[in-house]
Amino acid sequence: MEYVSLYRKWRPGNFKEVKGQEPIVQTLTHALEQGRIAHAYLFAGPRGTGKTSTAKILAKCLNCAEGVTPDPCGECPSCKKIKSGYAIDVMEIDAASNRGIDEIRDLREKVKFLPSEGRYKVYIIDEVHMLTTEAFNALLKTLEEPPAHVVFILATTELHKIPATILSRCQCFDFKPISLKEIASTLADTAAKEGVEISATALNLLARNAQGGLRDALGLLDQVVAFCGEKISEQDVTAILGLADQESLYQLAELIKEKNTAGLMNLVKSLVEEGRDLQQFVKGALGYFRNLLLYKVSPDPQEILELAPEEIERLGMQVVKYRRNQLMQIIETLSACENEMKWSFQARWTLEVALVKLVDNEENLELAQLKERISNLEALWQQGPPPVKKTVVEQSEKIIPAKEEVLLKEEFSAPPTASSLTLEEIAEVWPVVLEKLKKKKRTFHAYLLEGQLEALEGRQIILSFQKKFVFHKENAEKPEVKNLVEEILQQVLHQPVTLKCVLVDGQEKKNIEKKLPLESTPSHDEVADDPLIKKALELFGGEIIEIKEEKG
Q: CA dihedral defined by 133, 97, 150, 161, rounded to 10 degrees?
């Protein structure tokens, strides 16, 4: 028996089976129910989104033995002939190969004759934008005033090439790309019908590479099944289609962040030795860093990223290591690399140069930020402190403002290394973290105010909340709050840390509380011993005269 490809075998036979085009299906259904049949339709949209399938279903609806209906039976001779492509009254014309004026003149002569079997003669003209200007002009009059028994259905992937005179004589329907979720679901159903076992990650990978076209997705599934048989994994899909696997992309992101040039070169070498398509790898890397960027800027990444939960969780663990501008710079560099690889005879060299450039740009970016930080500090010293509300230090009618104190503390505090990081050091910068959080999001700041620094486990900071503050604890754990706090902590500590919130009884108190800002007025000796106060006195040449408690 002759083999039929999956996209032909499982082509939708009625409107209920059409995927991802609900507005179009609903409009056509209502029009058929009301007998409002247009003489010309134009279906426009990307390839593989159901234009030709919908045209054939509409032809069935018009010629079904049960009458004009939005739900053709699929069993009558007319429906079967249309499905198999042998219906005399339904003509499919490929405008790419029949694009001249002679073909359209022949069509104009034939439309005059009545249908041989059904109610309507239906002309489905695919890729209609390929017609010549003369052919469009010849078709124009027929489209405007066709015989009552004729319906034209034009299909195109390039709507902008259709003359306005043609568009004005058709009912136009825009077919949109099918969502990744819809494609993955359809692939899963098709695989089940075919008796094929395929993992969820493999389905998502096939769906992403179909780029919104269900026909392309079914074609890819057909290709993988032909190679693997009845059991398919993610590794099978990446190997057969020459795609970048997620592990390689994760490793790429780690090596770029670590500025490990040797590791990046070894990664490229491994890809070449495995026979991977380097251009496909760069495309995969662009998609991966795009996902990292969207995770970074989105309050709810799960809503915007069409990925499996485990993939989103892994992105969340890695995204804290990057700043937003770093991710945008990486995407720009990789985009330029992909364009250059299209014309390069040495794709490997092009990729290697791009990766070295990424590491160098990262170092230059950090140097530029350091220079800017130093320039801001120098400007601060030259301007001197403005006269604002008094704090604990007064000298010669010149004082350090509250905001200046926070800035000085941030500038002069040397960032702790990973090996020397302690809970006490985190407690010293915690007010700075809260102040930065307050400027960015006051509601997030309010959630953390009831928390106490409890412990430090490796790189994880434990923040405790008394049971009566369970509302604050639950909100502090939300991804958008937690991610922002961890991003600020990384800016202040200059190394990635994570935050964990826990509930406590409220009876035990940690010694760390004495490291947090004091509620009562400090003594003269306590103020004099403070490193920040010492530095301020050196800068401004003053002395401690009086200590006052700040009000309000």
A: -40
> What is d(CA 521, CA 518) in angstroms, rounded to the nearest whole number?
7
């009562």: which residue's tokens? 520
Closest of 476, 381, 470 to residue 433, by C-alpha:
476
Q: What is the set of domains in the chain, with CATH numbers?
A: 6-174 (3.40.50.300), 180-241 (1.10.8.60), 246-362 (1.20.272.10), 414-517 (3.30.300.180)
Rg of the chain over Cα atoms, rounded to whole angstroms, equals: 34
How far is residue 493's CA from residue 246's CA, in Å, rounded to a whole number?
A: 30
The residue to which tokens 């301020």 are assigned: 536
CA angle 474, 303, 310 (to 5 degrees): 80
pLDDT in tens, 240-268: 877 777 888 999 999 998 889 999 999 99
User: How far apart, in whole angstroms, are the C-alpha atoms of residue 225 and residue 109?
Assistant: 47
Q: Which amino acid is at 277?
A: D
At 276, list the tokens: 């991977």
CA distances from 119 to 64, 67, 114, 164, 461 (A): 9, 9, 9, 30, 75
3 state DSSP class of 244: coil
Nearby residues of 141 by Cβ (< 8 Å), 6 or more positions away: 108
Kindly report the number of other CB atoms within 10 A of residue 356's CB atom.
13
Is the sign of the CA dihedral 384, 390, 392, 393 positive or negative?
positive
**What pLDDT does residue 534 have?**
64
Q: Where are the alpha helices (DSSP H) in 170-199?
A: 180-193
State pLDDT tens for residues 464-500: 988 888 888 888 888 888 889 988 888 888 888 899 9
DSSP 17: G
Low-confidence stretches of the chain (pLDDT < 70) are 1, 362-420, 506-552
Res 432: pLDDT: 87
Which pLDDT belongs to residue 332? 92
Q: Are 13 and 57 in contact (CB under 8 A)?
A: yes
Q: Which long-range contacts (CB under 8 A, 24 or more apart) does 508-517 make?
A: 510/452, 510/453, 510/454, 510/455, 512/423, 512/424, 512/427, 512/452, 512/453, 512/454, 513/452, 515/424, 515/427, 515/428, 515/453, 516/427, 516/430, 516/431, 516/453, 517/431
Q: How far apart are CA 186 and CA 200, in angstroms?
A: 12
Q: What are 457's strand-pairing partners?
A: 460
pLDDT value of position 54: 95
Going by C-beta distance under 8 Å and a sequence separation of 6 or more, which residues neighbour residue 499? 460, 461, 463, 476, 482, 485, 486, 489
Residue listed under structure tokens 């486990």: 457
Whose CA is closest to 107, among 96, 116, 117, 98? 98
The two structure tokens encoding residue 547: 């200590």
